[in-house]
Specification:
3-stranded mixed sheet, 7 strands
Length: 104
């Protein structure tokens, strides 16, 4: 007899990677991207208060390997100058990869 193929459903969850910031709780963090002139711009959606010392954002496959980006940490959301910034980095380039940055 000829075997009958069985259809196995694929996961409908999109696959991606993560960027992670470890810093002090209670500060405001934002991921920024750098343009060709060297100016930094906030990434819409990748910002918020750090509640437990860690913040993590999901990276879509279409964005793998792009950059440069950096984390900027502010004392509060309305501040104009960051208290610390990370070195520039590119986004992960593989599914389930986690890029972790630590700032004071």
């Amino acid at each position: 007899p000829t075997p009958t193929p069985i259809s196995v459903p694929k996961s409908t969850a999109p696959q991606g990677a993560h960027i992670v910031l470890q810093t002090q709780a209670g500060v405001w963090s934002v991921v920024q991207w750098q343009d060709v002139n060297g100016d930094w711009h906030n990434v819409d959606g990748w910002r918020g208060t750090v509640t437990d010392g860690t913040v993590e954002w999901w990276v879509a496959q279409k964005d793998f390997g792009t950059g440069p980006f950096r984390w900027a940490v502010y004392q509060s959301a309305g501040d104009s100058e960051p208290v610390s910034v990370s070195e520039a980095f590119t986004l992960p380039d593989a599914v389930n990869q986690r890029l972790q940055i630590t700032l004071p």
